[in-house]
Known about the structure:
By secondary structure, this protein is α/β, with parallel strands linked by helices. It has 2 domains: 2-52 and 356-402, Urease, subunit C, domain 1 (Roll), CATH 2.30.40; 54-340, Metal-dependent hydrolases (TIM Barrel, Alpha-Beta Barrel). The chain is built from 16 helices and 18 strands. The strands form 2 sheets. Strands 1, 2, 3, 4, 5, 15, 16, 17 and 18 form a 9-stranded mixed sheet that branches. Strands 6, 7, 8, 9, 10, 11, 12, 13 and 14 form a 9-stranded parallel sheet that branches.
Amino acid sequence: MKVxxxxxxxxxxxxxxxxxxxxxxxxxxxxxxxxxxxxDKVIDATNKIVMPGLINAHTxxxxxxFRGYSDESELMEWLSKKIWPVxxxxxxxxxxxxxLLSGIEMIKSGTTTFNDHYFYEEETARAxxxxxxxxxxxxxxxSSEEEAxxxxxxxxxxxxxxxxxxxxxxxxxxxxxxxYTCPPDTMKMGVKLADRLGTPIHIHYLETxxxxxxxxxxxxxxxxxxxxxxxxxxxxxxxxxGVQVDADSLETLKDISGGIIHNPISNQKLGSGIADIKKxxxxxxxxxxxxxxxxxxxxxxxxxxxxxAAYLQKVxxxxxTALSAEDVIKMxxxxxxxxxxIDSEVGSLEEGKxxxxxxxxxxxxxxxxxxxxxxxLAYSVNGADVxxxxxxxKVVMEDRKITSIDEEDVMRDCRRIVESxxxx
Length: 424
C-alpha cells in the first residue's frame, strides 16, 4: 500500500519546517521531498500541518468511565475513597469498552502512541488492536505478598500474550504502581521480572508532598533513594510525574536511561504542584508529556497538555521564554519517544521510520493567520483540529471519521456500563 501526502507544511522534528510531500510505503515513511509517483491513495495537505503523531506517555485509558465522577479531591482521598472502591467492581468487559472510548478520543485528538498503566490490560490491548493504535502496556503491580505475586504473574502473562503483537505496535513493560504502594519484596519481584523479560519499568514517582512525607515515615528514605536501592534505575525507567524532584534526586536522574513524564493538567487539578520541567531539561533529563487518566485530567487531548506545560513553566519562572513552543512540541513527540525507548521507530518524520502521522486542518478562524507554526501548534491548536491520523502506515481516521468502529455504539455501551457500575 502506497500513500502520498501532498503539499503540506512538514513539521518533522528532525529538520526545519518546510513544504513538501511524504510517501508512505506499507508501514514506513519511504521518502520526504517533492514527489511524483503512482500510489494507491493521495491525501491533499495543502495549507495543512503534517507532523508526527503525539505520544501520550502516561495514562490509564480504562479510566474513561471516571470522567467527572469525583472532581475537587486531594490525590490520596480521591484514590482511596472514590477510585479504588469502584475499580474493585470493574469487569474485563468494562475496561475493554472504556479503553475503546479512550482510544477513539486519543485518535481524534492526535495521539498515535500511548503508554498505559492499569489492570485488565489484555482488554486494553484488544482495544488498541481494533483501533490500530500503538501502545505500551503495563499491568499495575501493587500491594504485597499473595496479591503482589498474583499481579506479577498477570504482568508476565500479559507480556507472553501481547508483547510485539500487531506487527510490533503493542509492547509490554513492567508497571510498578508507586514507591509508597510497593513494599521492598514487591519492588524486588518487579525488578526481577523486568530483568527477566528485558523490559522498561513504568512507575509513578514523586507526585505529591504526601508521598515525600510517607516515604520518610515508612522507610526513612526518599522515593529516589528507595528506587535506587531496589535497582529500578539500573533499567530503562519511565517515571510518571516527578513533581517533587529535589537536588539529590536531580543528580540521580542525570544518569538514568528513560526520563520523567510530565502530566501538567492532572498535577494542577489534584493540587500536586508544578514540576520544574525547565530544570530537568536543562540538566539533560528527557521529559515526555502525558495526560494521566480521565479521572484526574478529564480529557486525553494532548494539545491541552502541551499548552498547560508551556504556560506553567512561564509562570514558575516568571519568564515568557522559560519553555519554548518548539521545545514543548518536542516533549509531545520525539522526546516522548525517547522516554519510552521507541525513538528509533517513531516521534519524528524521517525516512525509514514508522508512518505515525497526523494532519492538522488550519482553515479555521482560531488558526488564522499563520505566522509561526510551532506557536500555532503549542498555543492555538486543539485536538478537534486533527483531520487525519495515520498509524503504522494505515489511515485510522480520515476527515474526523474513525475507520474501524462506530463511535456511537461505543459511547452507548459506556453509558450503559456507568449506569450499572456506579450504583453497585
